[in-house]
Design a protein that fits this description.
Number of helices: 5
Strand content: 25-35%
Largest sheet: 6 strands, mixed
Mean pLDDT: 87
Strand order of the largest sheet: 1-2-3-10-11-12
């Protein structure tokens, strides 16, 4: 079970007082959960990057593997007393202009040369749309390179822009995925677990949403701690209070 599904399962059990059934129609078939006649489809809510051809991807689809690759390659550089410890920071902008592995290898090679020369002045290395910043630590820690920070030029912006777009893209994806089984349940609810700015978003931050819900009755956004952040339409979970009131079995 994915992390966001574990979070959603705890939220649903707490909200309705009943343990939701996981994958009621079978493995890898929507919905993720059901409680009697109500289906709950779960998705991680993340900031999306829109390509010129109309496709989109989660920002972490580049951010996470790129920085993991950089960390793995830079960790191979042997420590020396002369070189000490160098903190590194990365920043990038899509689309990357070369394969990720090739970018990481070239950045590591250049960083390794810098380190072997025992240089302590800050240095900036740019390869394939990725910038690697190097700056010396005041005290060596037994490692040549240690991660300091990461940056993504495509992230950020006003909450009023980030959230509506992210919610709309998540809804469009789930409408397409659940279309074939929509008639198997009385109601559908889309549960989004917020990984954009968890714990910081307030309903009034994003203003009115204009969404065509299709066969979904409502959308709820919850934080990773299972706290409810937003319901659309407002107070829409009250429509499902009958679930709580029905006797089990």
């Amino acid at each position: 079970m994915k992390t966001e599904e574990l979070v959603a399962g705890k939220f649903l059990e707490g909200r309705f007082g009943k343990v939701p059934v996981y994958e009621p129609l079978g493995k890898s078939t929507p919905p993720d959960f059901s409680i009697e006649g109500t289906a709950f489809e779960v998705r991680r809510l993340n900031q999306r990057y829109l390509h010129e051809d109309g496709t989109n991807e989660g920002l972490e689809q580049v951010d996470i593997p790129l920085n993991l690759t950089l960390h793995r390659e830079l960790s191979k550089v042997p420590f020396s007393e002369q070189g000490g410890t160098i903190f590194w920071g990365s920043n990038f902008k899509r689309p990357l202009t070369a394969p990720m592995a090739k970018i990481a290898n070239r950045l590591t090679a250049a960083a390794g040369e810098y380190y072997s020369e025992g240089l302590r002045k800050p240095k900036e290395i740019v390869v394939g749309g990725v910038t690697l910043d190097l700056f010396a630590a005041s005290t060596p820690i037994g490692k040549a390179f240690r991660m300091g920070y990461t940056g993504d030029d495509d992230s950020g912006g006003m909450l009023g822009d980030i959230y509506p777009t992210s919610i709309w893209l998540a809804l469009e994806e789930k409408l397409a995925k659940t279309k074939g089984v929509a008639d198997k349940f009385d109601r559908w609810v889309l549960v989004l677990v917020d990984y954009v700015l968890p714990g910081l978003m307030e309903p009034d931050d994003i203003g009115p949403l204009q969404l065509n819900l299709g066969h979904f009755r409502s959308i709820v956004i919850i934080n990773p701690d299972t706290k409810l952040a937003l319901e659309y339409p407002r107070d829409s979970l009250r429509l499902h209070d009958e679930i709580r009131q029905r006797p089990a079995g």
